[in-house]
Amino acid sequence: MSKFSAYNFAGTKALIRVDFNVPLDKQTQAITDDTRMTAAIPTIKKILNDGGSVILMSHLGRPKDGPEEKSSLKHLITHLGKLLGEGTPVLFANDCIGEQAFLTSGMMRAGEVLLLENLRFYKEEEKGDEGFAKKLAQLGDVYINDAFGTAHREHASTAVIAKFFPADKKMFGLLMESEVAAAEKVLLKADKPFTAIIGGAKVSDKILILENLLERATDIIIGGGMAYTFMKAMGGVIGNSLCEDDRLETAKMILEKAEAKGVNIHLPSDSVIADKFAADANTSVAPSNHIPDGWMGLDIGVNACNQFSNVLHHSKTILWNGPMGVFEMEKFQHGTKTIAEAVAVATQNGAFSLVGGGDSVAAVNDFGFADKVSYISTGGGAMLEFFEGKELPGIAAMNK
Ligand code: AMP
Question: Is the pTM of this model over 0.85?
Answer without folding.
Answer: yes
